[in-house]
Amino acid sequence: MVAVAFAGVTKEHEPGRAALRHLTLDIDDGTICCLIGPSGCGKSTALRILAGLDEPTDGEVRLGRRRVNDVPTRDRGLGMVTQDVSLLPRRPTEDSIALPLELRRVDVDERRRRVHDQALELDIVDLLRRRPETLSGGEAQVAQIARAVIARPAVLLLDEPLARVDPARRAAVRGDLVRLQRLYGVTTVWVTADQAEALAVADRLAVLLDGRLQQAGPPLEVYRQPRTVDVARFVGEPEVNLLPGRVVGVPGDLWVEVAGARCRLRAPAAARLAGGPATVGLRPHELHEPGRPGDGADAVVAAGTVLGVETHGPHVVATVDLGGTVVRWDRAPLAVRTGDHVALVLDPARFHLFDPHTGVALHHPE
Question: Are 212 and 6 in contact (CB under 8 A)?
């Protein structure tokens, strides 16, 4: 298997209109790196350039020590799964899965054995004799996954690989993909707009917005220490609460006024915002009613009214108006109803703090 590197890769579809801007990213051999971001952020463009389906305007792509900008797709040693399923028409699914082996002139009996073994791995033996037109979108997608991994590629490229898989089966197929990746040790670049999916599978996240790499690192690091407001907003479900606040006081005695409350700040970096606005980030699961052990000495209580509730299986996500500031409260009690008056703890020890002008993070919880 090989490592992957993007070095200053830019893609302009026309002058001044870049889909990807100066992407520099190293992906270690044998790991899963998820490229995440909203639609149009450049993640699929990066994957197409890595696959050789598109050419960079500037920069270079390396597989191991080899520069591959001018290497044809067929010679890059890749397996690829896209959103657009392309199985051989009017032929049994097993023929589509076997195609990479056929192109490598693998013996017929060996092809059949390996196809059957691969189908067992993904629990799709019953699909082998069926034709593509009889498969559901999810079944066809799993067959495409089997085709991508059967030749043991050096690098596996996955572009929204679970997009067509039925929700009831998605977790199982995701688990199978990760299991196969670990088994074969194949370097994997996984593109998805589903950050929950990315957090579940990735060894490393790379967050792209507007064609630029915003942050790359281990999933928990990106979640706990987002470099910018935009990264904090995109990574995490439910979405982080971003609250307008104001920093008051002097260095060594700083406070933040937020959601109708006044909280002492133990964040020296906040001194640069003293006397001005700040953006406070608070994850919805960090909100709770008074009385929970572990609150910091500077925690305060804010009163609010429940505007709405969403039931998520065994827990509730409530939308609460705290004196004109609306927040999302994850893990709210099941008994909470719209219109209820509630008290929520705001613990500044759990605050993320961002410069409201630049969006850059100044402080994270320890």
Answer: no
* Spatial contact of 281 and 351, defined as CB atoms under 8 Å apart: yes
Q: Give the separation between CA 366 and CA 364, rounded to whole angstroms.
A: 6
SS3 state at 174: helix
Instruction: Classify the C-alpha dihedral 153-158-164-169 as positive or negative.
Output: positive
SS3 114: helix
**CB proximity list for 246: less than 8 A, separation 6 or greater:** 256, 257, 258, 276, 277, 278
- Of 156, 207, 130, the closest CA to residue 32 belongs to 156
Please state, in angstroms and rounded to a whole number, the distance separating the CA atoms of residues 288 and 249: 27
Which among 52, 66, 54, 40 has a CA at the least distance from the CA of 11? Answer: 54
**Token duo for residue 161:** 């690989």
Mind listing the pLDDT tens digit for each residue in 128-170? 999 988 998 888 888 999 999 998 999 999 999 888 888 888 8
User: Position 205: which residue type?
Assistant: L
179-194 pLDDT, tens digit each:
889 988 999 999 999 8
CA-based torsion, 133, 137, 143, 145: positive or negative: positive
- pTM, rounded to two decimals: 0.90
Match 């977790």 to its residue by tokens.
171
In what helix (H) or strand (E) does residue 45 lie, and over which residues does it extend? Answer: helix 43-51
Percent of the chain as helix, strand, coil, to the nearest 5: 30, 35, 35
Contact 336, 305 (CB under 8 A): no
**Is 36:207 a contact under the CB 8 Å cutoff?**
yes
d(CA 81, CA 71): 20
pLDDT tens figures, 234-265: 999 999 999 999 999 988 899 999 999 999 99
* DSSP bridge partners of 360: 228
Query: If we measure between CA atoms, which residue out of 266, 287, 249, 293 comes closest to residue 353?
Result: 266
The Cα 29–Cα 152 span in angstroms is 14
Q: Which two tokens stand for residue 162?
A: 């679970």
